[in-house]
Amino acid sequence: MSEDKISMRQLSVLFFVGLLSPAIRVLPSRTAQAAGEAAWLSGLAALPVALLLCWGLFRIMGALPEGEGLAGGLERLMGRFGGKLLTLIYLLWGLLLLSANARLCGQRFLATGYRNVELPLFVLILLAAVLWMTRGKFAAFARAGEIFYLVLSITLAAVLLFALFHVEPENVLPIWVEDLPGVGAAALPVLSILGYTVYGAFLSGTVRRRKGDRPRAMWWMTAFCLVLTVLQFINLGNFGPALVARMESPFFMMVKGIGVQGAFQRVESVVVALWVLSDLVFLGILAFSCCTMSRTLFGLRRERSAAIPVVLIGLTGALLLFPDAFSLHWFSDRILFIGNLVLGFAVPAVLLLIALARRRR
After folding, report:
1. 8 A C-beta contact, residue 100 and residue 318
2. Tens digit of each residue's pLDDT (9 = 90 or more) over 222-243
3. Major place of localization (predicted)?
4. 339: which of 132, 191, 290, 330 is 20 to 30 A away, CA to CA?
């Protein structure tokens, strides 16, 4: 990755595509549990905090020379030992995220219609594709992400358009003032998903810096939160908050009710298959980030040298750490949820305070 560069728009597109993978797994079932029919507002409630995260990461990275990502920035802020220690924590967490999310993607794929495939085999195929991508150039991965973005945008727009005709307004309206505390609580699952964007800061060394990068990234963050708002509004409008809160994959349940008369009656198999593109981008982002951190920590010549160990650790964790669906979902709902909030928002906030304090000296 040292020899190839991408634009901030390409990095933003990668995260837009990749974060759709955990988003449709978590939302709106988690938000419906907290806010009921007002859960669709959680994306808007999370937006100000998400924009502050973007602003803060750019402030932290602003003083770094081009080609240096957050791993190098941590050493400048916290010293060599402190910086490497925190980078190691992010690396270990990233490897755990890679393992858990590979398993979660596999379980979702099988649960939504492909039950004849063995879970370990699908996880193996998925991570083999991730290994192939991480052994290549990051710029090629970004260009593939742009193609996936086009495909998934058209797919998602079509799904939401057809599902819009099944929305029952009483499932999502009216919203009262007493619903607002629940909306605040429902914003936390959204922020947990957006916490993955901190790994974009570790990849920022691959970005060609241009004027307007910060507002461009913040625009993409805004667009993503708006998409989550529309997605949840339509999903909740189809089933109602009480039913959605008990569903494991409400988005794909909504897709099952979509048909195009005269073309094909059921489209869920097509959408499920296409959503693997989002899974690949999401896991690829985590793998590339872990490779970048490994290069800084262990003095590797190139990031791709760490690709095989990173993916093998991810595969081993996916197959051995979570023996059943219960342990996997317990980890996802509790440990992963809290960890992403801490490492995605709390730690960057502390780093921002340190950076601002040093600049005032």
Report:
1. yes
2. 999 999 999 999 999 999 999 9
3. membrane
4. 132
Q: Residue 120 and residue 51: Cα distance in Å, rounded?
A: 38
Q: Which amino acid is at 6?
A: I
d(CA 61, CA 73): 7
Structure tokens at 291: 């490779």
173 and 37 Cβ atoms separated by less than 8 Å: yes
Q: CB–CB of 41/229 below 8 Å?
A: yes
| Residue whose pair of structure tokens reads 């938000």 in the numeric block | 31
Instruction: Supply the DSSP symbol for 332.
Output: I
pLDDT band, residue 68 (cuts 50/70/90): confident
What mean pLDDT comes out for the span 245-251? 90
Closest CA to 288 of 75, 160, 131: 131
> CA dist 63 to 71, 73, 306, Å?
13, 9, 27
Report the candidate in 30, 24, 42, 355 with the shortest Cα–Cα distance to residue 179.
42
- The model's confidence at residue 29, banded by pLDDT at 50, 70 and 90, is very high
Q: What is the pTM of this model?
A: 0.94
Among 241, 247, 248, 244, residue whose Cα is nearest residue 36: 241
Phi (first) and psi of residue 212, to 5 degrees: 95, 5
Q: Is the model's pLDDT at 216 over the cut of 90?
A: yes
Confidence at 263, pLDDT banded by 50, 70, 90 = low
Name the CATH superfamily, with its identifier, for domain 8-360: Amino acid/polyamine transporter I (1.20.1740.10)
Q: How many residues does the chain have?
A: 361
Q: For residue 264, give the 3-state DSSP assignment.
A: strand
Q: Which of 205, 196, 230 is nearest to 345 (CA)?
A: 196
Q: Which residue has the tokens 């992963």?
A: 336
CA separation for the pair 223, 51 (Å, rounded):
11
